[in-house]
């Protein structure tokens, strides 16, 4: 009937009202079946089954994805018809939204491989708007799969008076010391009282449990003829059981001296502890063993997952590990089942039933290996549903959607959506992760990035690639993760050709996250590329120097260089962990800086990367000297110590002689900040004057820094007084007076400013000291 309504919508092209009504009826019929936990599609016919068998050998043979999807059997299903309807009505947004809403519900409930293939093919052939919406639907379904436990997709549905699972009466119950019954349940809200289990012998001796309103009633029938009921209040949990799954574990332990104990756990947490007489295990043989059924009591109504009876009393830690909602989730129950199946003594389990191993004849196999195969009552059926991530497995997993990006018409927005979809599949499915790693999906993404147009690259696309890496990072080895990060970020040139926003996002948050991973100290493996200080310096020289800057504006280039220095180079120069030798990073930085300074031959050279390196020195050295919490000494003091150790003063004087005007200003500022607490003598004054005497024009900005070096920075903004930490009287006659005489180098405005500052100093409180320094210089009169 649902197919008929869909066909009516597809054929009634001109009657929009009929299309809407037919689609509403199809949605109502489909949702009614989903509410009853019944599949909308009926079982495939004999012809369809024969077609699937004929293609089984072709699909199992090694082949490419294209040949595989070509050979895939086209089974007529409701999902396929809805997708075909979406293609025909994509011009009408209202109808498309109604179709996609119903499609989402069907895929969340149950998705098969043929549905996943139809969805993939429809996305490939749809228009831009419909493709975008289908990608959103697919991602929504995959994210919904993460919220649904994998094991709760395989449930026992119990409806009606005759519901339950009956274990054979010949099942041996090794319950001499205790037992544990556990299962995940979803209770029907319309039934106030229902049975949980009943294990009794032929004379009625045994135990049972039932839900009665907001209580769990535990009963024990002993061999002495006593009957004891123990009500356990649920404290309002019954209402929550109607909407959410609840893991119930009942542990009954026999005590030799003290009273027998019974414990009730809800979702792995102890809910109730009390006393209940333990029955005689010998008197419990030959009776009936029922799950969800009890004589003279309503059957269980709702859904149940993995009803299991263990022959031991579990501890608190074991119950917490068995619960599916444990954090972090464990697979200890599956491990116990595997161990019990191969063990000679199978007394750990009495029985364990799984909805996935039930036959059409209502036989439910015991997966514990104890051969306690049961049967399903007429009101019980096993429901096995598949998630979309699992349906994508035979097609190659979520990585299959990467093939959509080879279409040259795909926009970066759709590419970001596809990558987020792939990331969602990698999160929810282990098989999808395995296929992605086996196919080297990171290399495929790296190649696809080079095919996209560079200018439209967006931050959303970069975040989508980061989401893919984050999805597989916890599940791969460090070496493999490092290779992926190198291919997608560190060595991927498309990001540096892209917009400034992408580059800022990459340098500000993405690369610093993996900096410790990229900076490998494995000296034994010479094939591993080390991302050390020299690499990041070369990166700045490649992408952010004046001649090869990828962005046009100087402000953007400077900002990117600052991000590289602060987020990538600074953590390597000042590591938080104790490192025996940090000289390699500093040697590489000073070596790179000296080589770049030697290569600058023109006065108009910008060299933004070199400017920002000296700016980094200035910022750090000019930072406050106060102690920071958790730091042994301020950053300025550490940097001063490193610069004095690895860059001698003679090297700075050669840097000061650079012909680039803007760069010379940055070098002067860094030199002034570095020498603010360094004692400079007469040879330093001579070398400093020699570095400044090159045939260049000294502007006002450079003059202000030179005065700070020679006379000290201003200690008071009101009086204009200057102060130096160490005496620098030699700099007045050797540097300042000689610069006044160089009219070809110094502008008259600079000369006036310098004379004004000298006049202020010579009339200050320390004027006698400066006058004496001038008098001892033999050339001072000649210079004036």
UniProtKB/TrEMBL annotation:
Pfam families per UniProt: DUF4704, Laminin_G_3
SUPFAM superfamilies: Concanavalin A-like lectins/glucanases
Gene3D superfamilies given in the database record: 2.60.120.200
TM ranges: none
DUF4704 domain span: 413-548
Name by which UniProt lists this protein: DUF4704 domain-containing protein
